[in-house]
Write a structure and sequence with these properties.
This protein is an all-alpha fold. The chain contains 7 helices and no strands. It has one domain: Arp2/3 complex 21 kDa subunit ARPC3 (Orthogonal Bundle). InterPro entries: ECF_trnsprt_substrate-spec. This is ECF transporter S component.
């Protein structure tokens, strides 16, 4: 394996940040009930470790906050937690069936954090498409906190599972042409 240069690392991180921003904006503008805002963060965390995932998450949240989604900065702690969990739990060589339960472990602490932020700061309603589901459940008679927790748990898990499957697939492809990425 060749040594990873700072240029390779910065280029890869810039690509990961762009991936986060594009994913977040697709989910935001289409009002999807998932977020797609941590694909790049997870890519960096799995490929290069949790701390580079944290850097990617932080920069992505700042750019999204300044450009398209004022809510994104408030949820930066969620992306940071996701980066840490994925960086320590997920390995590039993980089998797809391991991702089913590892996605749960990666998403759970972020779900707790996101639920607290959503309920306390935003009274249950954010720019995310999942807020539509929260409002629907609240309209059926569930209290807002329960609605947020239920929706957050489901959407976070689905988002992390989809994102991690994509990340592992991307890394498998990239490892064939980039010796600094382990397959």
């Amino acid at each position: 394996m060749s040594k990873l240069s700072k240029t390779h690392l910065l280029t890869f991180m810039a690509m990961a940040i762009a991936l986060n921003i594009v994913g977040a904006n697709i989910a935001l503008f289409l009002k999807l009930p998932i977020y797609l805002d941590t694909i790049g963060t997870l890519l960096m965390a799995v490929a290069f470790g949790p701390w580079l995932g944290v850097g990617t998450a932080t920069i992505s949240a700042l750019i999204n906050w300044m450009t398209t989604d004022i809510f994104s900065l408030y949820f930066a702690p969620v992306a940071i937690i996701v980066a840490l969990m994925a960086g320590f739990l997920i390995k590039n060589q993980d089998k797809m069936h391991h991702l089913i339960w590892k996605s749960f472990l990666v998403s759970l602490p972020g779900t707790v954090t996101a639920s607290i932020i959503t309920v306390i700061l935003f009274k249950g309603i954010t720019s995310s498409g999942s807020s539509l589901v929260v409002q629907f459940l609240a309209g059926l008679g569930l209290d807002m906190t329960t609605s947020v927790i239920l929706v957050q748990a489901g959407t976070d898990y689905l988002d992390r599972l989809i994102s991690l499957v994509l990340v592992i697939a991307i890394l498998k492809v990239l490892s064939k042409n980039m010796p600094f990425i382990k397959a």
